[in-house]
């Protein structure tokens, strides 16, 4: 699997590595699957029902992603923009 980061910026990959570690430990290694379809369904349920809705994330102030997004939307008055920030480069996508 290729790196998720830009060349010479290995720290860009940290959040992806953390997610994959959590997915493996809390879902894949903790369950038995009949086949690939069962695995895919288990992963989808883990991400949608647990990881995004219930699991607290230290990077989000110990809130779930769903709670974090709802708070951010409330604070911005519904004006949602995606900010991508790299050292020395900031890009805003409406």
Protein architecture, described:
The protein is mainly alpha-helical. The chain has one domain (11-93). Helix content is 46%, strand content 11%. It contains three helices and two strands. Strands 1-2 form a two-stranded antiparallel ribbon. Strand 1 (82-86) and strand 2 (89-93) form a beta hairpin. It is globular and about 45 Å long. The two termini are 31 Å apart.
Brief sketch in words of this structure:
This protein has 94 residues and is mainly α. The chain is 46% helix and 11% strand.
Characteristics of this structure?
94 residues; mainly alpha; 2 strands; globular; 3 helices; single chain; two-stranded antiparallel sheet
Terminal-residue CA separation: 31 Å
Domain count: the total is 1
Main-sheet strand order equals 1-2
Question: Averaged pLDDT, please?
Answer: 81
Number of strands: 2
Question: What is the topology?
Answer:
Elements: H1 14-28, H2 36-51, H3 65-76, E1 82-86, E2 89-93
Antiparallel strand pairs: 1-2
